[in-house]
Amino acid sequence: MIKRIPVRRLVRDRRTPERAMAQPPEEDEHSSPTHQGYIRTAAQARDVTRGFLASLGASNRTEAEAVLLVVSELVTNAERHARGVTGFRLEAGPGSIMVTVSDASTDPPRLRHTNAFEPGGFGWYLVQDLAADVTVEIQPHGKSVRALLRALLPLAH
């Protein structure tokens, strides 16, 4: 059984939460293969992501950095809190990039209440702030976290 959990998102003004669900874009020629068993570190995931963005002709540096930051945070969270990455996927759709990171834990991500003067604890906040939509899908043997980022991509093929 698969359980979808809507993620409570922080709106930019940080006053009221909203619910958000993301549906992956339709499969097309701009989907990457799933990298199961290959991605173990955030550095590897960023390298794959840079290649993926380059293959799409992504030229907006700010958008590319946002995608890289979300990838890095999701993979780092899987490494630190869920015994590592079990799946990694990037998909490009019209005006969007979908990042999916899977791991073996069935525990959903949670916001950490952190001290602004101590390191760590800000990754999940960053993912929610940078992504237009975030979904956590709980499966019998783990979960998949999907973050949809808006991007102006020249999808000419």
Automatic annotation (TrEMBL):
Tree of life domain: Bacteria
Region (Disordered): 1-36
Record-annotated Histidine kinase/HSP90-like ATPase domain positions: 41-147
Basic residues bias spans: 1-12
Coiled-coil spans in chain: none
Keywords attached to this entry: Kinase, Serine/threonine-protein kinase, Transferase
Protein name from the UniProt record: Histidine kinase/HSP90-like ATPase domain-containing protein
Species this chain originates from: Streptomyces nigrescens
